[in-house]
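Teaching assistant's notes for section 4

Start the section by putting this record on the projector. Ask students to predict, before seeing the second block, whether Cytochrome C will look compact or extended. Collect guesses on the board.
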Amino acid sequence: MNKKTVFAALGIVALSTSMAFGLTAPKGGVVGSIHDMNIYTGTTPDSQGRVCAFCHTPHHAATEGNDYLPLWSHALPNTSYVPYYSATIDSTVDPSTMMEGPSKLCMSCHDGAIAVDTHYATTGTKKLDSDTFGTAAIAQTASLSNDHPIGFVFDQADGGVANGPVTGNPADNTPSAVGKDNWIRQKAATYIDNTSLKISDRLYAGSQGPIMTCATCHDVHNKKNVDDPTKTNYLLLSPNTDSKLCLTCHIK
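Reveal the predicted structure now:
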């Protein structure tokens, strides 16, 4: 994924427990999906019934506010987010660059500051209002400190952290070098149950190198995801079942 990609792939979780989940099956497209703002109670539907219009426009698109603006029609946040941190994290997350690429576009709805149905000249009414399990608001307090880290250079070949084998386990229990992790697969690894995609396909060419974004796990348009069809469609690039999404990267 690079800056010339026409449409962003944005990360999502779910709109809200008070709003019905989208009914379209995985790979069924954006219409009727969890990202179709026209289907929710409490939102202002698009006046022409358009779905893409909540994020994109063919004319008069935004030209500033992010390094990546794929014909963007939605308002953008100007928030400085606190990154994830723990004593065991090997990657370096720079707050000044971590929102490069599609992640900032995701936050234009998911941090709850801007109504999800805001687009064109329409001032929306529905904001995501709960940053708890089972809801979709993320970073309501401008903090991503309790969310999976994003915005870090992923692969060791690019100066990042992932230093594990593409398949199988590390050859031995040699401790990882400083800033490297032998138990995270390198970017040539494919997604479990979605082997047409490599991790490298879903990294964003940021100013520091290819970084992980919301789109490394999610597909906003409901076309490349492979969620379990019997469960909630979270637009995941590998299923939650048996933690296949986690195990695409993490060797456990």
